[in-house]
């Protein structure tokens, strides 16, 4: 199985379908994903908490792997996500990056980046243009 296929299955099963059992099938127990949450690495147990919290805010989730590069045990992916805000019914888009090392078709090391600021702006949890406000030195809130 290609690493791209594993990543497609990861996003579909875990983030689209909310299949928490898939976490153990595709993610080694001792692995922790760096970069999703500041100052915190996310392991299988944290994913089991994070995924339902995220999916409670959105519906009609679609994830596309826009670019994938494979090199030996590693794969890098740029991905985009389209969802509907559960509270307002408005469409929301997000984008991220994933860099993962694999062993026996499981992720054993991952580095992640997702534009949570733009995502949370779109669902109304942050004011519009939050990043621009921060760059001017203004406090949000």
Q: Report the sheet-strand fraction.
A: 35-45%
DSSP helix count?
Answer: 5
Shape category: globular
Number of DSSP-assigned strands? 6
- The class by helix and strand makeup works out as alpha+beta
Side by side, the strands of the main sheet go 2-1-6-5-4-3
- Give the N-terminus to C-terminus distance in angstroms: 47 Å
Given as residue ranges, the uncertain stretches (5+ residues, pLDDT < 50) are none
Over the alpha carbons, how many angstroms does the gyration radius reach? 16 Å
Order of helices and strands: HHEEHEEEEHH
Main sheet, how many strands, which sense, barrel?
6 strands, mixed
Mean pLDDT: 92
List keywords for this structure.
141 residues, alpha+beta, 6-stranded mixed sheet, 33% helix, 6 strands
Gist?
With 141 residues, this protein is an alpha+beta fold. The chain is 33% helix and 40% strand.
What would your notes on this structure say?
The protein is an alpha+beta fold and 141 residues long. It contains 5 helices and 6 strands. The protein has helices at 3-16, 21-26, 44-57, 116-122, 130-135; strands spanning 33-37, 40-42, 58-71, 74-85, 91-103, 106-114. Strand 1 and strand 2 form a beta hairpin. The radius of gyration is 16 Å and the shape is globular.
